[in-house]
C-alpha cells in the first residue's frame, strides 16, 4: 500500500477543481472527499480483510469494482454536486488514479474476478524500495501533482500576471528537483507555490478544514492500523533475524490486530515460518492454508506451503503433488524473473520427488 502517493493525487485533483464546487453541498468536504476517493479501493478492501473473507489483494482496483464505484460516484454527484460536470470528472479521476498508480507500481488484478493475473509492473520503483525509499520516491513522483493542482487554481483566480508567472516558475523548479532526485529543491518549490496559493486564494475556511477532517476519519483509521502493523512487523523481523522465533511470532500476531490491508498477508505467512522453525508443523500449515484461503493467488504463501509439502518427511504433511500444483500456479502469477526462477526450482524438485516415489 503506497504511503502518500494516492493522497497526493487526490489533493492535486481537489486543488485544481475546488473553484468548481461553488455553493454546492460538497463545498466543505471536497478536499477530503477527493483524497478519500483516491484511497477508495484500499478502504473497500479493509472491511473484507477484517471479516476474514477471501479476497484477491488489489481486487477493489479492478475494472469491475471501478465501474461499480463510478456508478456510485455518479449517483452522489447527481444528488449533491449540482450541475458541474467538472466535479464528476474530478471525482472519477481521483478514484481511477488508484488502479493506474497501482498498475505502475507493482500491478493489479485488473480483470478480477475472471482472472487473478496482475497487469502492470513496478515501473515507478515504488514497490521494491525500503519504507523511506518508497516515501522519497512517492514525493518525487506525486508532490508535483499537488503543485500542478495549486498552479491551476492560482491561474484560474488570480488577476496578477506576476503571481501567475511566479507560480509557474515554482512549479517548473519543482519538476526539475523531482527529475534530478533532489527532494530539498522539490520541497522549497512546493513551499513557494503554497505561499503564492495562500496569497491568491486566501486561507481555507474553518468549515472546509473541519469537514475535511471528518471525511478523512476512515482513512486516518486505516493509516493508524497500517502504522501499528508496520511497527510490529519491523520488530518481528528483527526477532526473526536474531533467531528468537517465539518473540517474532508474538510480534507477527500483534501486527494483525487491526487487520491492516498491507500487513495481514505478510504477517500470516511469516508467522507460519516461525511455527515451522519451532517445529510446529501443523500450526505452520494451518497459517499457510489460511493465507491462501483469504488471499487467493498469494504466491509467497504458496511457495512456503510448497516447501513444507516437499521437505517434511511426516506422511501427514509430505505431499509433493500438492507442491507441484502450488508452484505451477505461482509461476503463472510470478511478478519477476527472480520469483519465477525460485518457484521453478521447487517445481523441479517436487517433480523429481514424485518420480522417485514410483
Task: Describe the model.
The chain has 2 domains: 5-215, no CATH class; 220-357, Tetratricopeptide repeat domain (Serine Threonine Protein Phosphatase 5, Tetratricopeptide repeat). It is elongated, with a radius of gyration of 24 Å. The longest helix is centred in the middle third of the chain and has 27 residues, at 131-157. Helix 1 (5-21) runs parallel beside helix 6 and helix 6 (131-157) packs parallel to helix 8 (183-201). The protein is mainly α. The protein is built from 16 helices and no strands. It has helices at residues 5-21, 30-38, 40-50, 63-80, 85-104, 131-157, 161-180, 183-201, 206-215, 217-241, 245-255, 264-277, 281-294, 299-311, 320-333, 337-357. The model has no long low-confidence stretch (mean pLDDT 89).
Helix and strand arrangement:
Blueprint (H helix, E strand, L loop, with lengths): L4 H17 L8 H9 L1 H11 L12 H18 L4 H20 L26 H27 L3 H20 L2 H19 L4 H10 L1 H25 L3 H11 L8 H14 L3 H14 L4 H13 L8 H14 L3 H21 L1
Helix pairs in contact: 1-2, 1-5, 1-6, 2-5, 2-9, 4-5, 6-7, 6-8, 7-8, 10-11, 11-12, 12-13, 12-14, 13-14, 14-15, 14-16, 15-16
